[in-house]
Amino acid sequence: MCGIVAIWGEEAEEEQLLAMLKQIVHRGPDAHGLFTGKNGGLGHQRLSIMDPPGGNQPLYNEDRSRCIVANGEIYNFPELRQRLAPNHTFVSSSDSEAILHLYDEEGHQSAPQLDGMFAFAIAEKDQIFAARDAIGIKPLYYSEDQGRFWLASELKSLAGQVDNIKEFPPGSYYHSATGFQTFYEVPDIMPGNQPAPYYLKRIRKTLEQSVEKRLMSDVPLGAFLSGGLDSSLIVALARRSLGKPLHTFSVGLKDSEDLQAARRLSQYLDTIHHEYILSIEEVMEKLPEIIYHLESFDRDLVRSAIPCYFTSRLAAQEVKVILTGEGADELFAGYDYYKDIDDPELVLHQELRRSVASLHNINLQRVDRLTMAHSLEGRVPFLDLEMIKLAQEVPAEFKLPNDPPMEKWILRQAFEDLLPADILWRKKQQFDEGSGTVDLLDQALKGVMNEKEASERQAAYPEANLRDPEECFYHKLFMQVFERPEPILQNVARWAERQEGIS
């Protein structure tokens, strides 16, 4: 897990690349590297996960005609390496090197063959090739400014250099000779009509395999554990696959529901559990830093980013890789607003597909930014491409039965023997609710932004569509923590917009 930058189109100055890297040192404090040539340059900040001593980047192919900087993990790299080894000499056991040699063989068609989360750039003579993973788990932004093509893992790297910044589309690649091409979209397939047991078996097997492949690591690995269904399933499957205790991490107000449920499950599964008690004072002290790393003022995103920030900080004291339960709600109808959809078979099915496709700049942005703020790699087993495809096949009636309206019913049923009943059937709570962050913020934010100040800010920034005094306060902090906030503002997504127009 790392941070990457690139400037292409004319000779790049090292000082400019280093200035961009300086903004994302937190993504990779273990090492940094540069490539510069007459057509541009690449930069890399490394968080050492695979092959810590030998995987520094940029990595070069055998004749040094191409080099790569990459961020992410390629879970099928052992198979790719075996396939490529007869024709290529590998100088490391880094999964990123497999991307480079695959590109040597397959060119543009290399990106669709990668199973993992990734954002990378390959320099070759006077051309550059870049790609981002199918769902957008790993971030990437670009700009076509000043006659050059710019890339960076975070907006803050580009905001000091260019004015017009755009998100690199998930499931896409770019080549300087041909432009952007899409290689993946969330499958748009109609649900099947098989009985529930058929889907139960497939869901179980697919998630087991997804967790198993994400245990790949040469450094310590752990898992977030809120005590809710999603993180509990991931921890239980990881614990079973590893065959030994793993580190788990929770935060919340003293005696919050999340902390109590996480303690119970940790004892049940025999994990090495760590928890941290949140306080109003510390949350308010760290809020500007949280917003800076999040690169958003969206109220819902900020609220969920707060516990994510503190859990990541706690986890980083013990591990460098963390498993999370992100994505299950979008695949199996976990949010309350799904229950208000009148036509579950058609409208709910399409809304779930849209929800998955919109994760890249909302919840996945939160997970990436707040884990990487503490140099921690986050992995999301639910968002394996096989699980995404399977979830589109499962009828809505099994995800959210109308009577009673139990969210993620079929996911619970698939693992009925794995978790205690009170955890398995615990009602969905968002991260900020279960941890007590909502109550904490209600107390902490009293008086920080009155109605008059909020109205003035709403009038001054109509394009921001600020919803209430709380979001106005986050927006105020956002404008303060960035020297040049305007280019970043162009890319702030809104969680609430995903619900608009749904009936």
Largest sheet: 6 strands, antiparallel
Output the structural class: alpha+beta
Instruction: Give the name of the CATH architecture of the largest domain.
Output: 3-Layer(aba) Sandwich
- Using the coordinates shown, work out and report the CATH topology of the largest domain: Rossmann fold
Please give the CATH class of the largest domain: Alpha Beta
Number of strands: 17
Description:
The protein has 503 residues and is α+β, with helices and mostly antiparallel strands. The model has no long low-confidence stretch (mean pLDDT 93). The relative contact order is 0.12. It is built from 21 helices and 17 strands.
Describe the SSE topology.
Blueprint: E1 2-8, H1 14-22, E2 31-37, E3 40-46, E4 59-60, E5 66-74, H2 77-84, H3 95-106, E6 116-124, E7 127-132, E8 141-145, E9 148-152, H4 155-159, E10 166-167, E11 172-175, E12 179-182, H5 196-213, E13 221-224, H6 229-242, E14 247-252, H7 257-269, E15 272-277, H8 280-294, H9 299-315, E16 321-323, H10 328-332, H11 344-357, H12 363-372, E17 377-379, H13 385-393, H14 396-399, H15 409-414, H16 421-424, H17 431-434, H18 437-444, H19 451-460, H20 469-481, H21 486-489
Parallel strand pairs: 13-14, 13-16, 14-15, 16-17
Antiparallel strand pairs: 1-3, 1-9, 2-3, 4-5, 5-6, 6-7, 7-11, 8-9, 8-10, 11-12
